[in-house]
Design goal:
The chain is an alpha+beta fold. It contains 15 helices and 17 strands. The chain has a five-stranded antiparallel β-sheet with strand order 2-1-5-4-3. Strands 7-6-10-9-8 form a five-stranded antiparallel β-sheet. It is found in: Cell membrane.
Length: 575
């Protein structure tokens, strides 16, 4: 992993840690805010529910006070004056008292007083009256939502009956002294709900059942209907004090439910959670934006680090690879004007000095190789000359002048070829002609072998050192074929196996044992050879000096029976 990737990874990991810490902090903050919202709203709900219950309790208190009035008690006991003037005076007095109770309450309600014994009904609203049939039909000892007819207009109100003295059974209410009905209009509760809504962000309503709901004057009916469809509101009794998060129209709301202990109704509030958390979410989004900008800034810093540091380092590394691959003429081309310019200039100066030094060393090495090759070549000439002179002597003794003449001519041509020291290399084709000439001469001496030469024309133009093939042929004849009486065979095969050349020389002599072959390989690889048999060693080292590390000589037993020598060298560039 390079430096830039590490820097980017470090930046990303740091931002991930920061993001994780912020996410935890944000979660805790939201949790704390939700708890505070829940606490505040529960207190607010309790306060407004207490106000609703207090209004209802005030009506009960006023109903109780009515029962204590002496004038009302007299009428209840049948002491209503029969005369019209006195009777009207008493009725008006009682109605004034009822109106006084209603006005003192400062709420919209109706107080109706019914005397069963004299079938008389008095009310704060003259158009509202009671009779036995209505009382028996609508009687309830608890508050109940009903429709009250006010001058032909039906209005919602909570109604309740009070009896004096109290009766255990509703069937005996007509035997009581008087009956009081209090109608408490839901408009009073709607006004309280309006105050509740103004004091917060919620949308509260008073819930009794699916068809008994008191809304505030600006209630979001669509939202409340969605809530009714999603939440299991069966009736007021089934609701319990709770605080839950619901999702309506893709937005989250906090649903508060606070049941009344005195009524079978519950005060319900819907708080928009997203609006409440909007400042926190705004801060969160701002943090994410800043975090993104920090990441972007880190990427830009990493880019500058890459461009101004890693790119020059990579240039130096690639340049060092050129020097390593012996391309000493390579120079760094750069228009930079920073600190790396001086470093690049120093590298170019160093490469220049190395190039000049290598050239001087290379020239000296070439001269040294030429001296070594001439020395090795000089070791071959006496050896070959000795064999040829011995042959001429033998042929002269055997009175074979033609063989002597042929050998003398071939020996003269050989020395004419080898003594041209203006160059130490020749072509493979020329070397093969010399080898064929040599095998013809030797076959005239031995008359017991044949030879096969198969080399592609493309290889014959290859440049090789002089006297590379002839010593190997000589070794095959002297150490291989001399031990057989007849039917000897020497093969010279050339192969153009891209990207290298192969030249294989084999004979069908007796070959070598595994130990002798291993010993021959060891002696051939040694830098020094003190044994009198230097032909293969000489060829190996001259071949290696000429082609360098790209060449090799392999020694092995041949499938023909004798020794197999394989010369291998790689093609030069452009071949």
């Amino acid at each position: 992993m390079n430096l830039i990737k590490r820097v980017i990874l470090l930046i990303v990991m740091s931002l991930i840690v920061i993001l994780a810490l912020y996410a935890y902090s944000y979660k805790q903050s939201v949790h704390v805010i939700e708890n505070q919202i829940n606490t505040r709203n529960e207190e607010k709900l309790s306060y407004f529910l207490n106000r609703i219950e207090s209004l209802l309790d005030q009506n009960m208190i006023y109903a109780t006070l009515v029962t204590k009035d002496p004038e009302i008690k007299k009428v209840a006991f049948g002491e209503l004056p029969p005369a019209s003037y006195d009777r009207v005076s008493v009725v008006q007095s009682i109605e004034s008292k009822l109106n006084l109770f209603s006005m003192t309450n400062q709420i919209m309600n109706i107080i109706t007083l019914y005397f069963p014994k004299i079938d008389l009904a008095l009310s704060t609203v003259p158009s509202t009256g009671l009779n036995q049939e209505e009382i028996l039909k609508d009687y309830t000892a608890n508050w109940k939502l009903t429709k009250v007819d006010i001058s032909g207009v039906k209005m919602d109100a909570f109604s309740r009956f009070f009896i004096s003295p109290y009766q255990a059974e509703a069937t005996n209410i007509m035997k009581s002294d008087f009956i009081i009905r209090v109608d408490f209009f839901t408009k009073n509760i709607a006004n309280l709900l309006d105050e509740f809504k103004i004091a917060g962000n919620g949308d509260a309503f008073f819930y009794g059942s699916s068809n008994q709901i008191v809304y505030n004057s600006t209630a979001n009916m669509t939202l409340i209907q969605q809530l009714m469809q999603k939440s299991p509101f069966q009736d007021g009794k089934g609701l319990k004090k709770s605080s839950t998060v619901v999702e309506l129209s893709g937005k989250k709301y906090i649903l508060y439910v606070l049941p009344s202990e005195k009524l079978n109704w519950s005060l319900v509030d819907i708080e928009p959670l997203e609006e409440i958390l909007n400042p926190v979410n705004h801060s969160r989004n701002l943090f994410y934006l800043i975090l993104f900008l920090l990441l972007l800034l880190g990427m830009v810093a990493a880019y500058f680090l890459y461009f101004y540091i890693q790119v020059p380092i990579r240039i130096l590394i690639r340049s060092s690879e050129h020097i390593k691959n012996k391309n000493f003429s390579y120079r760094i081309q750069s228009l930079r004007k920073d600190e790396f310019k001086q470093l690049f200039d120093s590298f170019n100066d160093m490469a220049k000095e190395i190039d000049e030094l290598i050239k001087r060393v290379y020239v000296e090495e070439i001269r040294s190789r030429e001296a070594v090759m001439k020395q090795l070549q000089s070791q071959i000439n006496p050896h070959f000359l000795y064999n040829c002179l011995a042959y001429i002597v033998n042929m002269a003794k055997m009175n074979k002048p033609q063989s002597v003449i042929a050998m003398a001519h071939n020996l003269g041509d050989y020395y004419k070829y080898t003594t041209r020291n203006e160059t130490l290399e020749t072509t493979l084709g020329t070397e093969l002609e010399l080898a064929v000439n040599y095998m013809n001469i030797m076959n005239q001496q031995l008359d017991k072998f044949r030879y096969i030469v198969s080399v592609p024309e493309t290889m014959k133009a290859m440049k090789i050192p002089k006297l590379i093939i002839q010593p190997l042929i000589e070794n095959a004849i002297v150490h291989g074929l001399e031990e057989i009486s007849m039917n000897g065979l020497i093969t010279i095969v050339g192969l153009d196996d891209s990207p290298r050349y192969r030249l294989i020389i084999e004979d069908n002599g007796p070959g070598l044992s595994a130990e002798a072959l291993q010993e021959l390989r060891r002696k051939t690889a040694d830098e020094q050879n003190d044994s009198p048999q230097k032909g293969i060693w000489n060829v190996h080292h001259r071949f290696h000096y000429y082609f360098g590390e790209r060449s090799s000589m392999r020694l092995d037993n041949s499938a023909l029976g004798g020794l197999r020598i394989e010369l291998i060298w790689e093609k030069a560039a452009g071949e």
